[in-house]
Design goal:
mainly alpha
Amino acid sequence: MDMANVVIVSSQMGRVADNSQQKRNAANEPAAGDGGLWPFALGFYARPGVAAALIALQDNAGVDVDLVLFAMWLGLSGGGRLDAPGLAAAAGAVRPIRTLVIEPLRALRRDLKSAADADVQRLRERIKALEVDAEKAALDRLAARFGRRDASRRDGALPLADAEANLTRCLGRAAGTKPAALIRGELRGCAEEILSAAPRPARPSA
């Protein structure tokens, strides 16, 4: 994902978030995992400072943003921790989409940013939309192949520690950077919001 996609992402997020919130209100369910990886990714990407931090990690440290979003969602939704082979398998699963579609589209979109021709800019908008579609395809593949539930999760417990461990593994050497610290802070804030929205166990009647 990239800053130039924020307008598209925010527009899509508004529609998805409204529908997801209505469903969560009706079912009284937490957002992460239960709403799916794509709605989680849109919502998290739109949190304050997250887009810029993720792009900095992507451009300066070679971090795969889709893997980062997937890894956090996996932990928050009760899927447990990614080990090194699991992360490698996830990266391999989306590598064709990333290398053959997402990265070339991103490069082309950035190259066309300064073009003055109006028709070129209209085409660039279509490239942005296609890039977002490719991002969604990658995330959908990750969720379908590697999304899982931890049977030990009970009473709506949120395994934030798993999400943080997954984030650290994905970031590698970039885990100690300022953008990583911002992402980690927003992850904790997201977890707190999910917990506050989770249903509380009913008290036994006297």
